[in-house]
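Q: My labmate handed me this sequence with no annotations at all. I'd like to see what the chain might look like in three dimensions before we decide whether it's worth expressing. Could you predict it?
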Amino acid sequence: MNLHAFQDAFVEALYDPEATALSMLAEQPGFTVYRNTVMKGAIDALRANFPTVERLVGSQWMVAAASIHGRQTPPTDARLLHHGGAFPAFLDEFEHARTLPYLANVARLDLLWTQCHTAIDEPGLDLNQIACLAPEQLASLQLTPRAAARWMWFADQPAFSIWRHNREGLDMPDDLDWQGEGALLVRRDGVVGWQPLSNGGCGFLDACAAGQPLAQAAEHASGLQPSLDILDLLTRLVSADVFVATDSH
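A: Here is what I predict for the chain of 249 residues:
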């Protein structure tokens, strides 16, 4: 067995007690201790990275789910802050999460928070940078979302309200409307903040991220939400520090 094959087998033995490639090594008491330590690290990382999910399901449920997920999808990055990229999709299919159909989307919002928190620093766009542009210049302007900005639209669930109330430790309202919601998360001055975002707003940012100029992005957003006030949306997004500074003239 060459080194590469040994390393693959070693990792497999760590996360799968039934693996046979290194069975003699895996049967040693020291290896069991090592396996338990590695698994605990993966479980603790997942719990830390998805605190809102844990608040909804409790620590015992979360530990059990994290253990199953960890064996199916071991960490691939030594920086355990990045562990769990596949956890929302895991929850989509997890039998024991069927009674909480919004849980995977809550996990997606926890994941967006981590992505904002760990994103590179970039200078934000000042409203004055675009306020003086001529209409034709403004129409052709390409606005690029910062790496520290994330957004998502949830068509069938009030996922953002559920996430926000639990993330902030607030009691859920009794009259929560079961309807689609969007969320915008942005890191500003080292702190990740969040706010609701409409379907049109999410579509606008999708278009901007795809490189569409402002006029086309606005048209796309208005098609999704005809009542959308584009000027108000743009002002709110720039004020939230969503876009990278531009040198367009």
